[in-house]
Amino acid sequence: MSRDRLADLLPHLPLLDALGEDEHVTRAAETLGVPQPTVSRALRQLESRLGVTLVIPDGRGIRLTEAARRMLPAVRVSLRAAQDALDSLDGSRSTVGLAFQNSLGEHLVPRLVRRLREERPDIRIELWQGARDACLAELDSGRTDLAIVSGAAATHPAHQSVHLYDEPLVVVVPADHRLATAKRITLADVFGETHVTLKPGYGLRRTLEQLFAAEGVALDIAFEGDDIRTLHGLVAAGLGIAVGPEVPHPLDGCVQRPIDDPRAARDMGVVFRPGARPTVLDDVIAVLVDLTRP
């Protein structure tokens, strides 16, 4: 991009970020604290100077063009970098956006936050929690800088990753189930059961489907949910069994048993965008590696 086009773009980064939130000119104007005609006028001027269309009519509203969507992640990264640069003038903190899978909210992420608060008070973490695919979407959008997910190495080529650890999976069965007292549980035992599991898009669902597909076995599902604790409650009620990470303090009526197969595990890693990145991201990654070291 030429210097002139860059100079035209930089003052409008907050405008593009605001439009990207929900693709609505009036709400973007409210976010920016300016009249709606000012936003419309600035948008037309920016399109003219860049020589590209950024929004198109969509019903009674607008929709971002593909060109605008391609710009949006870099726009958001640039805004955070600019804020960090301003913060550095008075010794304030750098901000790192972190997305993480739901199952990491009880242990790993709190440990990370505690360590950073104790040892790196100059780093402020903005957290976002959700399913694996949603975490990666947040990373791609530029809203976050890092994502801790399962199957990190298997994300698309636009990502880079660092492996953190392999997490063994257990089978959760009702207390009166035949597997509750079995001396040894194999994947073959798990394959023959009806399951309660997470919805598509969750890392655990992806892992379960891969295990079944590797053996050419159909996955019999009685329920798809959004929360591991809900699955355990339905296991206790007898609706099916569940496969997932071991949780502390299992619900009454449930038994967690190890699966005697090295394939019954999920690989956890931290994912980030390729290319040059602020040193602070490497600092956070280093803390994660240290926290998950055997």
UniProtKB/TrEMBL annotation:
Organism superkingdom: Bacteria
Coiled coil: none
A Pfam family of this chain: HTH_1
SUPFAM superfamilies xrefs: Periplasmic binding protein-like II, Winged helix' DNA-binding domain
Gene Ontology molecular function, alphabetical: DNA binding; DNA-binding transcription factor activity
Any single Gene Ontology cellular-component annotation: protein-DNA complex
Keywords on record: DNA-binding, Transcription, Transcription regulation
Domain HTH lysR-type stretches: 8-65
InterPro entries referenced in this protein's UniProt entry, alphabetically: LysR_HTH_N, LysR_subst-bd, WH-like_DNA-bd_sf, WH_DNA-bd_sf
Entry's family note: Belongs to the LysR transcriptional regulatory family.
Annotated protein name in UniProt: LysR substrate-binding protein
The organism of origin for this protein: Microbacterium oleivorans
